[in-house]
Write a structure and sequence with these properties.
43% strand, Nuclear Transport Factor 2, Chain: A, 158 residues, seven-stranded mixed beta sheet, 3 helices
Amino acid sequence: MTADPLIQLRIMQFYAAYASCVNDGRYGDWPDFFTETAWYRVVARENYDRDLPLSTLSLKGRPMMKDRIYGIESTIFHAPYYQRHLIGLPMISAASDGRFDVEVNYTVIRTKRDVAAEIYSVGRYIDRIVEIEDVLKFEQKFCVFDNDIIPNSLIYPI
């Protein structure tokens, strides 16, 4: 499918803004990228491909996302680290009535103090993006990771 170039550009900018938000640690702003009832899911490729329900993380609705952010900022204690999201060019597979099915590859690199950077997660986003009053939002964001496991615990959004 060939999407309108303006829509492609807006979607690329949307992903760039998403990456900037999580790379900069502005987690309080992260839920604003989603609709009120959005589904955010981090799932292994094997489970996704076989349509199995087990996910590493599954948040349904912005209130659950806000609760997760509260946990990140107030209750979870861990050695500090940074994440850098490298997001490829989005492929729009379907578009109708302000809804866009989008797939895009990602790599998340994690850097800890005094430790070499490591590849934390590699995979693809399988997303449904909706346009609400000229603003793009994720209605569904599935982070389907290719690596067997995500090392250590999953704290920050992918």
